[in-house]
Amino acid sequence: MKRANLVVGVVLVALVVLTAVVSWVWTPHDPIRVNPATVLRPPGSTYPLGTDGFGIDILSRLMVSARACLLIGVIAVGIAAVLGVPLGVVAGQRGGWLSEVIMRATDIWYAFPALLLAILLAAAVGASTVTAMVAIGLATVPAFARIARAGTVQVMSHDYVSAARVSGTRPTMIAVRHVLPNIAPVIGVQASVSFGIAILAEAALSYLGLSTRPPTPTWGRMLRDAQTYLFSNPELALWPGLAIGCAVLGFNLLGDGLRDLLDPRLKEIR
């Protein structure tokens, strides 16, 4: 069952990535061209998933939306890891008052979720893809800082780290040679889970108009456009909803599977 989570997660993530890659070179129709003559067409051979209220092919929009979803996820998780991991490592290595200051700062940081940060940034510089990436990335920093600190504290308690410190190895070199390689698996698991959260957050921000601007399609904007036809054509909301659900589920299952595979404590239980 544990390996099944990993396999299903890999398959779903690979499907999303493949869809995004294929959309760079081919889509069934133009994903942004409005065609009043084909409004709300049912699924068929010409339009496999039908068309929306603007006459645009739904499948083409879904495919192109996967690109924005992955781009924002990669950049947001990258921002969170680049800022959060060093903070966590420093807090775990130094301890004392510095660790307390960093951890209490991350507690305060938790009070600013991605939606609130996106609203603040949108008010300051305007809604855009960059706004969404920065907001989601900053909101995820505390999670990486806590995970990195916990892993660093565990690594620092080992004898080989104590020997390195006694021999005069600088804290920076200890972090590079001993801490980071040992906490890399848990950071990778956290990155996978955070990627799913970033996709969900991006969809919410797109729905509210705080992310990628039109005419570039996103899954969240497709949901917002579909709400007008929710009772007459509910399938318009079904397809982007399924896309978001599959992507988030895939990255969450991938994270769970990697944790089960890489965590030595779980291996001992088996």
Low-pLDDT sequence parts:
none
Structural class: mainly alpha
In what range is the share of β-strand residues?
Answer: under 5%
By CATH, the architecture is named: Orthogonal Bundle
**Separation of termini?**
12 Å
Biggest beta sheet attributes = none
The quaternary organization reads as single chain
Number of contiguous helices: 10
Shape: elongated
Specify the CATH homologous superfamily.
MetI-like
User: Level of helix content?
Assistant: over 70%
- Total tally of structural domains: 1
Elements, N to C (H/E) = HHHHHHHHHH
Beta strand count: 0
Question: Could you characterize the architecture of this molecule?
Answer:
The radius of gyration is 22 Å and the shape is elongated. The model has no long low-confidence stretch (mean pLDDT 90). It has one domain (2-22, 56-269): Orthogonal Bundle (MetI-like fold), CATH 1.10.3720.10. The longest helix has 37 residues, at 58-94. Helix 1 (2-25) crosses helix 2 (58-94), helix 2 (58-94) packs antiparallel against helix 3 (96-109) and helix 5 (129-156) runs antiparallel to helix 7. The protein contains ten helices and no strands. It is mainly alpha-helical. 75% of the residues lie in helices and 0% in strands. The two termini are 12 Å apart.
